[in-house]
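step: validate -> pass
step: tokenize input -> pass
step: predict -> running
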Amino acid sequence: MRNQRLIIVIILSLFFSISTAQDQFNSYRELKKIPNGMNIIHDNNKTRAIVGIHGFYPVYWPDIHHEWVQPFNFLVKEDIKTFFYKYDWNECPSKVAKEFSIELENLIKKYPEVDDWQIVGHSMGGSVVMFTNQSFIYNNKITFNTVATPVYYEPEKTPFFIRAYESIFNKRCSETIDSLNDEFENGFTNKHVQWRNIKEFDSQLKRYDFNPYDRVIKNSIVFQFPDSLDGERVGHTASLYFSILEIIN
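step: predict -> pass
step: emit ->
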């Protein structure tokens, strides 16, 4: 009887361990259920961590957070400590950055064993990352990554539907990308890495009459993606997954 109980315990332990190992996201619908704020995607006792920050989603966008499904599944599979910061994307990046900075400081204090923090902001999330880096205290354990994030902007040359959308929804931010001119000219406090697409292959930026990536940021490391990798086009969404692969590998 005792041996039977032991066998049952072992079988249940194996079942739950296998279930945990396969506990990955099947679709964006699961990510949509995650609440705003800092969330744990995958935890362990290792010394490396990634914090993902999503971008902006228009009201007509159906698959919210779909671009994070593949990266998160990969990070879970690779047993990388992973967090996801969700926020109201209708807020201005500079405002979100103030809230994110507090959450990030608390996270770093909670995990003192981590000596390599990779902060990854995609699209508008990259703008949040840059505004965070603008005032974040120096920490040699942190790298701020921006993926498919514009560093140059000419409002009057953006497509009409974008200007109309901003006008209808009154997204007027007092702090714009020009508010980072000093950081662009003199460098950010903490390490900054840019993951840039070719504009013509970036679905969200190819319609602009200027190149949103065409600006030099002092001391910033730039990774320029080609038009495709492994037979897949590197566009606005795919560049997030490819940048995560490079950061990890």
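step: describe -> Residues 2-21 form the longest helix (20 residues).
step: cleanup -> pass
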